[in-house]
Amino acid sequence: MNAHEPWIAGALGDLDAAHLRRRLVVRPGAGGWVESGGRRLLNLASNDYLGLASHPHVIAEARRALETYGAGATAARLVCGHLPCHEELERRLAALKQCPAALVFASGFAANTGIVPALCGRDDHVFADRLVHASLLDGIRLSGATLHRFRHNDAGHLDDRLRKAPAKGRRLIVTESVFSMDGDLAPLADLADRADAHGAMLMVDEAHATGVYGPGGAGRSVELGLQGRVAVSMGTLSKALGSAGGFAAGTEMLRDWFLNRARSFIYSTGLPPAAVGAALGALDVLGREPEMGTELRRRATDFRKRLKDGGIDVGSGDSPIVPVPVGEPGRALALAARLETAGILAVAIRPPTVPPGTARLRLSLSLAHAPEDLSAAADAILAAMGTEM
Ligand SMILES: Cc1ncc(COP(=O)(O)O)c(C=O)c1O
What we know:
Number of domains: 2
Structural class: alpha/beta
Bound molecules: pyridoxal-5'-phosphate
CATH architecture of the largest domain: 3-Layer(aba) Sandwich
CATH class of the largest domain: Alpha Beta
Number of strands: 14
Order of helices and strands: HEEEHHHEHEHEHEHEHEEHHHHEHEEEH
Number of helices: 15
Shape: globular
Distance between the termini: 42 Å
């Protein structure tokens, strides 16, 4: 321990005592399974919803881009790191999202921390669902705008907040379309109505909807016909598309504004060619098999019903993110350990990722899982919950 580190040791000890200390565990895997401690576990923890991270075409396209353009973009996009593959990816993402333009960032996190401060500043107001992702909250903090939080998925409460906020300054409403930790769906049409009524921009984080909802995986804004009413459709390449990177889709002018004002875009090296190639490969696969998301949600509906029939409150909807509410972090860790013994990787999600008292297992399904493996997993989860209670 260095002389200046005792406070860190104390704080880590406090996290241990509260069952909130996080640790890295090496778990190589592919195709819906991982290896952990010499055992093979069904992976119900990844965001590789469509199994594309290990798809042969995705890997081949990543390799092709790597061999064509090299390992790195070598500079920020505005310097000399803007490659033909970036241009093509942005064109294809804009087409997927049915928007005129898109801009790719180094990650989804970077996209959110770049987009919000580019749209709002100290004199402005951001209205955010209480459960939005940490990257959006950090973007709001960076912007210096006043934050107004509204109750989760409550358009009426948003309306109230909009009405009571000062009239001066720009207004931005921020939500996820599929919530990352609960798997429930935002009432996007209602939020768009409130945005129109109060002269606010609407930004939708489609990290967990892209590839999974909407025609050909376009996301929920397109599914609901809200293109044009959603000012910024943000997404990631790191989840259903199996790669890495984030993006914003919207008008040409918005893209132009972000590449002039989003600091996480301007001052960061362009996305590596292999990641760009992988994302392009994933878009090829989705283009050929546009029903992948629908099939995944059909399997998720069956899986959810099994748990619900067994008395677990998995919430509503058909998303492949299935929360198993537990409550206290220690119980969530114990349940995850019991499932690991049963051959299932299901990570305990604890505060501050979720609000205090709402620790849970966050199960995520993938097309890479065989239906019979999901069925066996549902049995194992019900058994583990049964012995727990
Ligand atoms: C809702 C949401 N937005 C943004 C991000 C950040 O995306 P990325 O992992 O690509 O940085 C995540 C990922 O955890 C997320 O769940």
